[in-house]
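Saturday, quiet lab. Running sequence design on the structure tokens for the scaffold JK sent over.
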């Protein structure tokens, strides 16, 4: 009666995190409370995204975000919901959002020990056509919450306590790591709960898929060009790899995590630092990849070792199956 057990004994995300916490007797439930506020934000955005086509929520808000890109109404809304949910949790002290130029320092009366870096709605070019988009987040802990500076969030990704993303796709999936593996939860809309559906995700060691915006190929550097050439024309008698590119980092990374392969947003002549942002795109996804047994590399170093100096800094990124990233690392090493 295995199937019946699964239907009646539901491992919700809250139950899962509480279980994890019971292994740390010193913990007082603060992370569970923080996570429940992140989950609330994800549920809200999920509901707003699924209604977007109907409710005419989409369309230009007439504002430009810090990177000079057009902001959509749904981005603005998602950001507001996350900022308010995180502040009201009483467990945060600094927030860094892709949508806000400056970091938000939480009022001392509501301050807690966590810093949250996030992209409330990533993949903006896919909003209007209903293709998968997502939220990405990472969590740091401050040393002293009465004395916080921006340095608390300018830390290497390896210091993150937790990272995750929520994908608003054919279903709503939240993938989370608190530093001991990666687990995936799917929103059951009738319950309003995220249920553990993908326990202990491990990325395949090798992959048959590469994921990159090949429209930028003419401006790539040598190693990236060589790697992609080899994906298409392998010299060792292997089959060529398949190309999949959605243009939503969350969706492209989610597929890479489950099926294996590599996702790359390399540097190019026009964008020497690539496109993706270190704190709330590169770090959380690199954290999840490593926790799932894969790797993440910037073209120079292990991505999680990078020390950011600005909150909206960008970096090239190569992440995915262990062997694929190993190959990229070899090509960069050969360049030197
Ligand atoms: P955004 O923050 O404006 O949505 O940009 C980030 C997105 C990522 O989700 C995705 O990996 C990348 O941009 C795609 O960029 P490009 O269109 O240059 O291929
Ligand atoms: Mg983004």
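Result came back. Writing it out in full:
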């Amino acid at each position: 009666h295995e199937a019946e057990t699964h239907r009646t004994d539901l491992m919700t995300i809250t139950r899962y995190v509480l279980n994890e916490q019971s292994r740390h007797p010193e913990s007082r439930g603060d992370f569970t409370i923080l996570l429940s506020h992140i989950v609330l934000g994800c549920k809200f955005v999920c509901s707003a995204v699924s209604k977007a086509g109907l409710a005419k929520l989409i369309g230009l808000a007439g504002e430009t975000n810090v990177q000079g890109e057009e902001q959509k109404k749904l981005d603005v809304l998602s950001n507001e919901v996350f900022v308010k949910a995180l502040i009201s949790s009483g467990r945060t002290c600094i927030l860094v959002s892709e949508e806000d130029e400056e970091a938000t320092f939480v009022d001392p009366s509501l301050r807690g020990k966590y810093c949250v870096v996030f992209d409330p709605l990533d993949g903006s070019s896919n909003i209007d056509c209903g293709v998968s988009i997502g939220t990405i987040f990472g969590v740091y802990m401050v040393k002293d919450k009465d004395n916080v500076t921006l340095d608390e969030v300018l830390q290497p990704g390896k210091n993150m306590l937790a990272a995750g993303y929520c994908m608003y796709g054919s279903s709503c999936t939240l993938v989370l790591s608190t530093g001991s593996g990666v687990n995936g939860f799917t929103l059951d809309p009738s319950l309003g709960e995220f249920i553990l559906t993908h326990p202990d995700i491990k990325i395949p060691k090798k992959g048959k898929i590469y994921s990159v915006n090949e429209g930028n190929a003419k401006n790539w550097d040598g190693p990236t060009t060589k790697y992609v050439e080899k994906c298409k024309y392998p010299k060792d008698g292997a089959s060529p790899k398949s190309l999949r590119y959605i243009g939503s980092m969350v969706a492209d990374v989610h597929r890479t995590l489950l099926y294996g392969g590599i996702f790359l947003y390399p540097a190019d002549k026009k964008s020497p630092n690539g496109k993706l942002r270190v704190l709330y795109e590169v770090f959380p996804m690199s954290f999840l990849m490593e926790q799932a047994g894969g790797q993440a590399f910037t073209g120079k170093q292990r991505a999680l070792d990078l020390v950011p100096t600005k909150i909206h800094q960008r970096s090239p990124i190569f992440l995915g199956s262990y062997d694929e990233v190993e190959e990229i690392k070899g090509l960069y090493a050969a360049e030197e």
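Notes for JK: The mean pLDDT is 92. Residues 30 and 91 are 7 Å apart (CA to CA). Ask whether to fix the surface positions before the next round.
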